[in-house]
């Protein structure tokens, strides 16, 4: 149906030609929906349609005025139905976008009660604050199970909102620390407080990391030696691990030759980790220094069976 199909029959041919122009959709429907608000009546019962400071004659007979109004109401109803159908097809999503701006060039002074005269430069704004770009703070959550690198069950930890929303909460690993959740986890939390030597998430990560370590222990090939804790501490320090000598446990039998050994490391005086190591000779003459064959990699090796 063309936009001018609902024009009442009371319109003259000149009005029809005008409505079929490039401005036809706007002119026609505005004329019909507004109920002829833009029509102006002259003394000779001739109506003029006012549009863009021009008057276009519209020949309407008095007895056909009522039928024209009825036709306009029907057209308005059909347009409203079409508009509602179009809106239902759209996917409208609420967004929270707040931007605070201020004028780059201030407005000139003006008399009280009057409007200032704005120039082109007064419409230039600069952004003061964009609230959507602010970093979102972390959120506190109550863990219901052990999560590597985060914490243990019953512990309240502070994590990123994205991690809590996408991983912890959907998997049931964490909940909001509400009063009901704290009451449900009260027994676990009391057990955690009673346990003095419990391991934190970082201590458990350290245990897993050290379990896959294979130390390289260079010893002198020109002098006699006996393996002691200082040798182990220096070897670990070269690989980026700081350990006190009190936490090192040597093999029961003294070691005086190159071989593979198992060293015990104590974590927080609660867990003992066995670490493998290879002892090899180094000489003052660097041309004689050769690494053993099939030497395992330093990290990410299979753990030692207890």
How would you describe this protein?
With 306 residues, the protein is of the alpha+beta class. It has 3 domains: 13-89, no CATH class; 139-194, Ribosomal protein L9, N-terminal domain (Ribosomal Protein L9, domain 1, 3-Layer(aba) Sandwich); 204-288, Ribosomal protein L9, C-terminal domain (Ribosomal Protein L9, domain 2, Roll). The chain is 28% helix and 21% strand. The protein has 8 helices and 12 strands. A 4-stranded mixed sheet has the order 9-12-11-10. Strands 1-2-3 form a 3-stranded antiparallel sheet, with no helix packed on it. A 3-stranded antiparallel sheet has the order 7-6-8. Strand 11 and strand 12 (271-282) form a beta hairpin. Helix 2 (24-33) crosses helix 3. The longest helix has 25 residues, at 65-89. The two termini are 85 Å apart.
In this structure, how is the largest beta sheet organized? Answer: 4 strands, mixed
Ranges with pLDDT <50 over ≥5 residues?
1-50
Quantity of strands, as a count: 12
Top CATH class of the largest domain: Alpha Beta
CATH level 4 superfamily of the largest domain: Ribosomal protein L9, C-terminal domain
Number of helices: 8
- What is the helix content? 25-40%
Which architecture of the largest domain does the CATH hierarchy give at level 2? Roll
Derived from helix and strand composition plus strand pairing, the structural class reads alpha+beta
| General form | elongated
Number of domains: 3
């Amino acid at each position: 149906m063309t936009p001018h199909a609902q024009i009442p029959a009371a319109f003259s041919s000149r009005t029809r030609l005008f409505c079929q122009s490039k401005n036809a959709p706007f002119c026609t429907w505005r004329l019909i929906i507004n109920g002829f608000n833009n029509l102006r009546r002259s003394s000779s019962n001739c109506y003029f349609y006012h549009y863009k400071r021009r008057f276009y004659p519209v020949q309407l007979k008095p007895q056909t005025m009522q039928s024209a109004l009825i036709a306009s109401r029907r057209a308005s109803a059909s347009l409203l139905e079409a508009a509602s159908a179009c809106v239902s097809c759209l996917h409208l999503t609420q967004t929270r976008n707040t931007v605070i701006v201020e004028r780059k060039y201030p407005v000139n002074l003006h008399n009280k009660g009057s409007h200032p005269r704005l120039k082109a430069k007064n419409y230039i704004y600069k952004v003061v604050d964009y609230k959507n770009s602010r970093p979102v703070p972390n959120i506190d959550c109550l863990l219901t199970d052990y999560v590597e690198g985060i914490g243990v069950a019953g512990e309240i930890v502070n994590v990123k909102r994205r991690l809590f929303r996408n991983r912890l909460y959907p998997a049931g690993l964490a909940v909001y620390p509400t009063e009901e959740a704290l009451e449900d986890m009260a027994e676990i939390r009391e057990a955690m407080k009673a346990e003095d030597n419990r391991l934190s998430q970082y201590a458990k990560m350290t245990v897993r990391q050290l379990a896959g370590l294979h130390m390289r222990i260079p010893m002198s090939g020109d002098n006699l030696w006996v393996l002691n804790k200082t040798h182990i501490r220096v070897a670990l320090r070269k690989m980026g691990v700081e350990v006190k000598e009190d936490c090192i446990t040597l093999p029961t039998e003294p070691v005086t030759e190159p071989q593979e050994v198992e060293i015990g490391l104590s974590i927080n005086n609660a867990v003992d980790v066995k670490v493998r190591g290879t002892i090899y000779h180094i000489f003052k003459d660097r041309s004689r220094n050769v690494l053993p064959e099939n030497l395992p990699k330093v990290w990410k090796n299979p753990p030692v069976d207890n």
